[in-house]
Write a structure and sequence with these properties.
The protein is α+β, with helices and mostly antiparallel strands. It is built from 65 helices and 42 strands. Strands 25-24-23-22-28-27-26 form a seven-stranded antiparallel beta sheet, with helices on one face. It has a seven-stranded antiparallel beta sheet with strand order 39-38-37-36-42-41-40, covered by helices on one side. A five-stranded antiparallel beta sheet has the order 3-2-6-5-4. Helix 52 packs antiparallel against helix 53. The longest helix has 31 residues, at 830-860. The radius of gyration is 50 Å and the shape is elongated. It starts with a strand and ends with a helix.
């Protein structure tokens, strides 16, 4: 029973303490009872809540108001304050001044009198602990009515009755009360007071805010956010807060709860704790600046969530289902809104009912969220009070919701902690929720997907809830008087509210109290009972298909493997191991593992041998590594007893347990895990404790089921009151000591898992950070303590090299914290706790001592056998610098090798890393035993290493973290290696140092190309020195004579400052002893060749002349090198020797093409204007239009201004700058005048002259082609308007659109090209005008940044095209990003890091586009007859790219082998591209980093090759080969920065000298030539060029492809670009004996992986590929395959006719017949074999080809390919006839028809002459010698001795016998001649 009202107060306006601006205060006028009740003290501050917006006086009377505020006292009890406020008139305090003399005036003015009346609020307040809003409204209304209507009842009686009214709290009773004023009210109490009473507040809340908003608030309240309600109605604020709390049932809100907050207390809103608060809308502005508060506006229906607040919502699909059901309740018309014949009545239920339906939905929701929660309760103590803990991790794990944010937060929250302590105890009264969770889970689960069924269930729940609130539906009528209308309206007559007589009221109260005492106590039997637990969780999981598809198969694998281990079948176990480790990613397999291992433990012990122990530990580690730190699936918990059971004997009586090997996991350092484990063990022991006592009783009742701990506890709690005192204390002591003994046990267990095996290492502390882990469990008291301890502890845990005592201390501290926490929670006595604290350090110390012994012994264990290291094959001259170190090759971001794209994983692999003088090689075998027989090789040249970074790696098989290296190479290779434990760290450090030394030698002579074959063969070196003496002296002489020659002229020291070389290499200083320069007045005569040079220099010059450039200049007709007298004057250009001593420009070649009319002296002056002195020189001339291509560096700044600002201004004086700019102009003019088109128009740019010459020099197609240039020019310069210029060439070209990549800027130079474009492309007006305006004679492609402010004369004959060039830095950064995109170091699932996205971000393709675009523009200009000068940056990067590409596109010669070589030698090597500097080849250039300018060029060539595959003689492989070797430093070709440096080192001309060691090629070109003779791998079989074809490739990003050079790799043999290595592997294969039975078992498996493949798959040789393509095409078209012979004949005949028709021989007219090709083919066959596997490809192009081709070890004969040519034509048969051949041992001599075939280079034999099937073949390539033989046993009779001869091959000796001796001689000669041909 409880009082209806505790206190009654009257609160009025305090006139004394009035504030100035009208803010008043309230004060309590009267209160009853005067003194506080003992059970509920009087709440403070009630007067603030009566007028939440502040006490104010109003000029008019306000209507009476009523609301209920809620106050919370210090014991968190809620008090409901019902405030009834009405208004009383009083004289205006401001007008109550002293009576003035003009009193009579005042009387006249009535209006003032009226205004003098103001109204003050007065409140009647009831304070109660019960929440009966309506009853309170009626009672206070009655008191007010009594006062207003002046009823006869004394007010004291009414108040006295009100304060003495007593009603039951719950039980569903009905109580009628009266206050003695003729009134009657019925109070219904709820049946169960545990369920909240909501009236219709919940439905109201949903109506005001809507479903989604309320769900947001619901989730926010549960996850402890701050919520603020706004409304202008106080009662609505209270109702909304009440509604929100009602739907949170069964959770109770335990934070600040203030439904109505007075304005004076607004600062409460900035509290850091969560709250639910309501505030009047008046204060809306004050709430604006709250950053982390969710604001719900009830009047506007909005919920505002700040940006910084993230609300975790309900997990799907629950959220969706809840929303659906709520909308069905609130808006039933929604479902049928679209129906044609909707049912008639679909009104939503009445508000009261709807309210209960909504609450039913939330009850149903909580039942789903918390189903099975009782199975995760741990009961730790039963007596005297039950202590219960919730195992959060297990609950989440079993529900598989560990990832779910919402549930995690709810379970961690205060509300849930309250829920556990309130609903945890197993013996208590139960309510609706308990019933739901226990008995309806199954129903909920089956119905959850069907909203209609859910709705029915919800309606059932709603009925129960409604019944609970309204137990008696037929309620007797209330009878309460309201004040009459008249009394409310009469405004003035009202008397103030009377003061009550205290004594009378107090008498009432005392009287009632004494009556209560004498009355007998009401005993209400509380129905306690055992709380049902509901179905266990296990059944409810995995319905979402979390179980993996083939889990049964996986579990089988795990079981088998464990069985094999314990049966000691180690080989079997090893094979299964990787599959097991993969399977252990799944939860089921991990559970299975723990169960299986459990079966092998006997009496807590299982002793294993070393190998078994190793495997078991590996499996345990693998299982644990995927456990999260909270161990939600209980895997670590299940393993905990096992790690202390499995052990191995180590000799000397020492045993090592598994725990010492599985410590590296987060879970062991997590306090939560240990707590949960401890509690579950304690629960089991307590259960056992009570079960023992009942064993005796249960003997007879054997079939009784096993009792759960909670059921047992419930039974014990029921019996507790019946026990005697002694029994009770005995039980309490037993339980306490059980907990205590468990605590000791756990202190031991924790020390096992926390102390590392090597206590000196202190590994554990750093990795797991014991100190960082703060316990988050459901106890809130100790949490803060644990937290503070964690902080104090944490400050000390950052040490690096700690002594073992520190490890011990930290472990002791950790265990102490644990013990404090669990013992406090489970009520262990203080004495016991102290004992524990003294014990723990001893336990730890003892354990450390045993560990030390184990550690000592474990070091003595023999190492586990590891696979033997495979040695790599080395190149001739390549030597090992460091022998192999055992490492693991870790998979990187490329997926091919890891098995993700199919096939077993090749990586990780175990092997060794070798450092040689040339390469870095990894060779090993995959860890996965299924591919154990494969060999994995990854290598790259040491010179291509671009980045090395240390990493730490955890291997899946071992539990230790190893140090490793990540090495990245610019050949697009990446090695991630982890050093094995056996590699000491100083060894690894030594490896790094050696690597650095080799990567960045002091000087270029330290690179492999120079050191090859020198270190071991010092003798050889001396010889070579003598050999090359002449060359060395020659280069020395050259430099000397340079100084001497110049010495003769006037030497000035100051004028010439050499170009700024970014890399002054170490030898540079000797060279610059005196900085030499040529003064301007050098006389012309001294520079002719013969006059100034001594004989040794002449020799040099002749060498210079021999250089490739000169051959090319002569081919192009750009002048011959002859004496100045004989030089024909009409040649426009000459070869100048002004730079023969490299004095004018050090980075140019010795011979340069300049205009005929320019003397060398001018050249020297002009060169000053250009950067690095690289003045314009001619490098190519168009044979048709005679336009020339020039290259130079950009101008120095002063030159530009002087040059372009006033192009035709007369020189104002002989100042230096002017003279040079004039000379510069003269130089350009000389170039222009060399063009025939200019000469013909007599030097004037007249209209008629121009057009006529133009028409005459070009055919009509040029007219059509003309507009294209303008469009191109626009793109290159990036103008704003994009006019699509159309290309009319045979439809090959679409229209070009401007590329958005180049910056759009509208230049004022080059505008003539772009301006008239649009008119013309539409077939615009005057072509003559168009032409005149469009064409300049010379275009200068310049850098936009340099050409700012240049003006142009409209009749100028040259024109500047400013373009944006890509900076070297840009190329460098782009390349880095490209490497990361193509060879990522780690695999990522981030969509922003996908391959294509990274590729795009690298902008590599855009850079290619830019270079190609400029090149195509230049090609167009040259083709249209204008000359072009490329003058960009320093003239050695972008200029070189553009100039080379232009020549490649314009001149078919450069698309052949010789031409391409020449192009690279001329433009890249001679013109000084800085290979060493850009490739960072030496220590000096290390800082500048690797910039692949040449690679970019090769990529551009590759793009053109893709678009014009028939125009190139060389294949794509050739380009890859160059791309690889230009960074590999294997050859000297691409070393050093200029010809000058090469001469100085003496490497330029040695290629011509004879070579001593033929196997070491110094030049890449020689190597390619040599390889070309052996195999056609570089040859492009599609090559059939058109005559003089100018290529114009598409250059847009969409047309460019990623080069596969960046992507491909072959793990089987490493990069395929060092061919000798392949040969060696094959030779090894060939040496295996021929008889199959004697050879070892060779695997016949062919494995084709994306990245592990034989070379012939990756680079198929062309003939095979073309034949196969043809065959597959024929098959597709359904044609019968022709015999190859017929096809061949057809081709031959067509080619013959072609040759006859063509008057001039084309250099590729009869490609297939060309003899040099057949020669290449013959010498070594075509590579048609898989490397070293030995199955020959049998090209079954013939229908009758035999299907059973036997594998031949080694290289198959070429005949497999040519098996088509089965003809008897003589051209294939050079010589034939009958010979006797001796069979193998004990076989007779037989006559055979022999055919010697020169074409195929073989000796074949047949049964008879007519026979088509060849019986056998002797490859002439294998023949070593032919010599006369002797007669042998069984030879044909009567044949002379000399008719015998023998043929010796590498494999055996064949004995032959001819008919007579001349015949024999003839055969021998024929065979011999074939051999000498080869």
């Amino acid at each position: 029973m409880s009082r209806l009202a505790d206190y009654y107060l009257v609160v009025g306006y305090d006139l004394d303490k009035r504030a100035v601006e009208g803010e008043g205060q309230g004060r309590i006028l009267q209160r009853f009872p005067e003194k506080d009740w003992e059970d509920s003290p009087f709440p403070q501050g009630v007067e603030l809540f009566c007028q939440p917006t502040g006490w104010q006086l109003y000029p008019e009377r306000q209507p009476a108001s009523f609301f209920v505020a809620v106050l919370t006292d210090i014991n968190s009890e809620r008090h409901y304050c019902a405030c009834f406020t009405f208004w009383e008139g009083l004289d205006n305090p401001q007008l109550l001044k002293s009576e003035t003399s003009e009193a009579d005036e005042v009387e006249d003015d009535l209006s003032v009198v009226r205004a003098a009346q103001v109204f003050a609020p007065k409140s009647l307040v009831l304070v109660s602990r019960l929440d009966y809003t309506e009853v309170f409204r009626n009672c206070l209304g009655l008191i007010y009515t009594v006062h207003v209507d002046g009823l006869t009842v004394p007010m004291e009686t009414v108040v006295g009755n009100l304060l003495t009214c007593i009603i039951p709290i719950a039980g569903g009773s009905q109580r009628t009360i009266t206050l003695g004023a003729g009134d009657r009210q019925v109070i219904q109490t709820p049946i169960d007071d545990a369920l909240p009473v909501s009236g219709s507040t919940v439905a109201q809340l949903f109506r005001q805010l809507g479903i989604v908003n309320v769900l947001y608030l619901f989730c926010a309240a549960l996850t402890e956010h701050k919520i603020l309600f706004l409304s202008s109605s106080y009662q609505r604020l209270t109702d909304a807060c009440r509604g929100l709390l009602a739907i949170m049932f069964p959770l109770k809100y335990s934070f600040t709860y203030v439904p109505i907050l007075p304005g004076k207390l607004l600062e409460v809103l900035s509290t850091p704790t969560p709250f639910i608060i309501g505030v009047n809308s008046v204060f809306r502005l004050e709430t604006q600046e709250l950053l982390d508060v969710i604001i719900a506006d009830l009047d506007g229906g909005t919920v505002t969530i700040p940006e910084c607040v993230h609300i975790s919502l309900l997990p799907e699909p629950i959220l969706q289902q809840t929303q659906t059901v709520l909308s069905m309740v609130l808006d039933p018309e929604l479902e049928i809104a679209d129906q044609a014949f909707p049912p008639l009545s679909t009104q939503p239920s009445a508000l009261k009912i709807q309210d209960k339906e909504i609450r039913g939905v939330f009850l149903w929701l909580f039942a789903r969220l918390f189903q099975g929660y009782r199975w995760c309760l741990h009961i730790i103590r039963i007596h005297p009070e039950p202590v219960i803990r919730f195992h959060k991790a297990a609950f989440l794990g079993q529900r598989s919701l560990t990832e779910d944010d919402f549930l995690m937060k709810v379970l961690d929250g205060m509300a849930f902690a309250g829920f556990v302590s309130e609903r945890g105890p197993p013996y208590r009264a139960t309510d609706l929720f308990d019933d739901l969770v226990a008995n309806h889970v199954e129903r909920i689960r089956q119905e959850e997907t069907c909203p209609q069924k859910v709705l029915n269930h919800v309606r059932e729940l709603a009925e129960l809830l409604f019944k609970n609130e309204n137990p008696y539906p037929a309620v007797a009528m209330h009878k309460v008087q309201r004040p009459s209308e008249s009394s409310q309206s009469s405004s003035l007559s009202q008397t103030p509210f009377p003061s009550l007589d205290d004594v009378t009221v107090q008498l009432f109260i005392d009287h009632a109290a004494s009556k209560l005492k004498s009355a007998p106590p009401v005993v209400k039997a509380e129905l306690k009972g055992m709380v049902p637990s509901g179905p266990p969780l296990g059944d409810t999981v995995d319905r979402n298909g979390i179980v993996m598809a083939n889990s049964a198969r996986r579990l089988e694998v795990v079981r088998n493997c464990i069985t094999y281990i314990f049966e000691n079948k180690m080989l079997e176990a090893k094979k299964l191991m990787p599959a097991v480790l993969r399977a252990l990613k799944g939860r089921a397999a991990r559970v299975c593992l723990t169960q299986e291992l459990n079966q092998h433990v006997l009496q807590n012990r299982a002793v294993l041998d070393d190998q078994q122990f190793d495997y078991i530990v590996r499996m345990m580690n693998c299982t644990l590594q995927d456990c999260s730190h909270i161990d939600e699936h209980g895997i670590a918990a299940a393993l905990l007893p096992l790690v202390t059971a499995f052990c191995r004997k180590m000799g000397a009586g020492i045993t090592q347990f598994a725990y010492s090997c599985v410590q590296d996991h987060m879970v062991w350092a997590t306090m939560q895990f240990w707590e949960a484990m401890f509690y579950s063990d304690v629960q089991n022991h307590i259960r056992a404790l009570y079960l023992e006592g009942e064993e005796g009783e249960q003997q007879n009742n054997s079939e009784q089921q096993e009792i759960s701990a909670l059921e047992l506890a419930s039974e014990q709690s029921r019996l507790w009151p019946t026990l005697g005192k002694e029994m009770q204390t005995e039980r309490v002591q037993k339980e306490e000591s059980t907990v205590f003994s468990q605590a000791i046990h756990y202190a031991n267990r924790m020390s096992y898992l926390l102390l590392p095996l090597d206590t000196s290492k202190n590994r554990l502390l750093r990795n797991t950070g014991l100190g960082d882990v703060e316990s988050v469990s459901n106890s809130y008291v100790t949490n803060s303590i644990a937290g503070s301890m964690a902080e104090s502890y944490d400050t000390e845990s950052g040490f690096e090299d700690a002594e073992s005592s520190d490890v011990a201390n930290s472990v002791v501290r950790f265990i102490n914290r644990f013990v404090d926490k669990v013992c406090n929670e489970s009520g262990v006595t203080n004495e016991h706790l102290k004992a524990l604290h003294t014990m723990i350090p001893d336990i730890v110390q003892m354990h450390i001592e045993t560990l030390d012994a184990v550690h000592r012994e474990s070091k003595r264990l023999p190492p586990i056998q590891k696979p033997k290291l495979l040695r790599p094959t080395l190149l001739p001259g390549e030597e090992l610098v460091m022998d192999g170190m055992r490492v693991h090759l870790i998979p990187d971001g490329r997926e091919e090798a890891t098995g993700l794209m199919g096939g077993p994983p090749l990586l990780p692999a175990e092997g060794a890393i070798f450092l040689t003088s040339y390469r870095l090689i990894f060779k090993g075998t995959p860890n996965d035993p299924l591919v154990g027989e494969q060999v994995v090789t990854r290598s790259f040249p040491i010179a291509s290493l671009t980045k090395e970074k240390r990493i730490s790696v955890t291997l899946p098989m071992d539990q230790f973290v190893q140090e490793g290296l990540q090495l990245r190479s610019c050949t697009f290779q990446l090695m991630k290696i982890a050093f094995d434990e056996e590699v000491a760290s100083d060894q690894a450090e030594g490896f790094r140092k050696h690597m650095h030394k080799l990567r960045y030698p002091q000087h270029v002579q330290g690179t492999f190309a120079f050191t090859v074959g020198q270190s071991s063969k010092l003798v050889v070196e001396h010889k070579t020195k003598d050999k090359n003496q002449s060359l060395k002296t020659l280069s020395k002489n050259l430099v000397k004579s340079a100084k001497r020659t110049i010495g003769r002229q006037y030497v000035t020291r100051k004028k010439y400052s050499p170009p700024t070389w970014e890399n002054r290499s170490s030898f540079q200083s000797e060279l610059d002893e005196d900085e030499i320069s040529v003064s301007e007045e050098v006389d012309q005569s001294s520079l002719t060749l013969s006059s100034t040079m001594r004989s040794s220099d002449r020799q040099t010059m002749s060498n210079v002349v021999e250089r490739a450039c000169c051959r090319d200049y002569q081919r192009l007709g750009l002048g011959t090198l002859s004496n100045s007298l004989t030089r024909s004057k009409n040649e426009p250009f000459r070869i100048s020797t002004v730079n023969r001593m490299y004095t004018v420009c050090r980075s140019y070649p010795g011979l340069l093409i300049v205009p005929q009319s320019i003397p060398d002296t001018t050249i020297q002056r002009i060169s000053r204007c250009y950067r690095q002195n690289r003045f314009p020189v001619v490098c190519w001339r168009n044979s048709r239009t005679k336009a020339v291509l020039l290259r130079s560096a950009g101008l120095h700044a002063k030159g530009v201004v002087g040059f372009f600002k006033s192009p035709n201004a007369p020189a104002s004086g002989p100042s230096q700058a002017d003279s040079t700019s004039l000379e510069q102009e003269k130089y350009l003019q000389a170039i222009i005048s060399s063009m025939p088109s200019y000469n013909e128009s007599s030097g004037r740019n007249t209209l008629s002259g121009f057009t006529s010459t133009h028409m005459s020099t070009s055919d009509s197609s040029d007219k059509l082609r003309q507009p294209k240039i303008g469009a191109l020019m626009k793109q290159v310069m990036g103008t704003k308007e994009d006019v699509p210029g159309t290309f009319s060439r045979g439809g090959k070209w679409g229209s070009i659109r401007g590329s958005g990549r180049l910056s759009a800027y509208n230049p004022d130079v080059g505008n003539r090209l772009a301006s008239k474009e649009s008119a013309q492309s539409n077939g615009g007006p005057s072509e003559a005008l168009f032409l005149r305006q469009q064409k300049a004679y010379l275009y200068i492609i310049g850098d936009k940044a340099q050409l700012k402010g240049g003006k142009q004369d409209s009749f100028q004959q040259w024109e500047v095209v400013p373009i944006e060039v890509c900076d070297v830095r840009q190329v460098k950064n782009s390349f880095k990003k490209l490497m990361k995109a193509c060879v990522p170091s780690t695999s990522t699932s981030d969509p922003n890091m996908s391959f294509l996205r990274c590729l795009e971000e690298s902008e590599w393709i855009s850079l290619l586009h830019r270079v190609l675009q400029v090149s195509v523009l230049v090609v167009e200009l040259l083709d249209s007859g204008s000359s072009v000068m490329v003058s960009l940056e320093d003239g050695w990067d972008v200029s070189t790219q553009v100039v080379s590409l232009v020549q490649l596109l314009s001149d078919p010669y450069y698309r052949t082998f010789d031409g391409f070589r020449l192009l690279v030698e001329k433009e890249w090597l001679s013109f000084g591209h800085r290979f060493s500097h850009r490739g960072a080849q030496t220590l000096g250039s290390q800082s500048s980093g690797f910039t692949p300018v040449f690679l970019q060029f090769l990529d551009c060539v590759h793009q053109i090759h893709l678009q014009f595959p028939m125009e190139f003689e060389f294949s794509q492989y050739y380009l890859k080969f160059l791309a690889y070797h230009y960074v590999s430093n294997r050859f000297r070709t691409f070393l050093l920065d200029s010809d000058y440096e090469r001469i100085e080192l003496g490497v330029l001309y040695e290629e011509k000298g004879e070579r001593k060691s033929p196997q070491v090629c110094k030049s890449v070109w020689d190597y390619i030539d040599r390889l070309n003779k052996k195999t056609p791998v570089f040859y492009n079989y599609m090559f059939s060029p058109e005559d003089d074809e100018v290529l114009r490739p598409y250059t847009f990003n969409s047309n460019l492809k990623v080069w596969e050079f960046y992507m491909e790799e072959t793990l089987s043999e490493g990069p395929s670009y060092d061919w000798e290595l392949r040969g060696r592997q094959e030779r090894v294969a060939e040496e295996t004996p021929e008889k199959p039975d004697s050879a070892g078992p060779k695997s016949q498996r062919r494995i084709v992986w994306p990245c592990y493949d034989s070379l012939s798959k990756v680079v198929p040789d062309a003939i095979t590929k073309l034949l196969q393509d043809l065959q597959s095409l024929e098959a597709e078209l359904g044609q019968t395959a022709d015999k190859w012979k017929d096809t061949w004949d057809k081709i031959k005949s067509t080619q013959r006719t072609e040759t006859k028709l063509e008057s001039k021989p084309s250099f590729s007219s009869s490609l297939l017949m060309s003899s040099n090709l057949s020669h290449q083919r013959r010498s070594q066959g075509v590579y048609l074999q898989e490397s070293g596997v030995g199955s020959s490809i049998n090209l079954a192009l013939d229908c009758e080809a035999s299907a059973t081709s036997t594998p031949v070890p080694g290289r198959p004969s070429t005949s497999t390919l040519y098996s088509q040519f089965q003809s008897t034509e003589s051209e294939n048969r050079s010589f034939e006839g009958i010979l006797y051949k001796r069979g193998a041992l004990l076989k007779p001599w037989k006559p055979r028809w022999f055919v010697l075939d020169k074409t195929k280079h073989q000796l074949r034999y047949y049964e008879t002459r007519q026979d088509k099937e060849c019986k056998g073949v002797i490859e002439l390539g294998d023949v070593e010698s032919v010599y006369p033989g002797t007669s042998a046993m069984g030879a044909p009779k009567n044949i002379e001795e000399k008719a015998f001869f023998d043929v010796k091959t590498t494999k055996r000796v064949y004995n032959f016998c001819a008919q007579d001796s001349p015949n024999a001689q003839l055969w021998m000669d024929s065979v011999q001649s074939c051999l000498s041909d080869a």
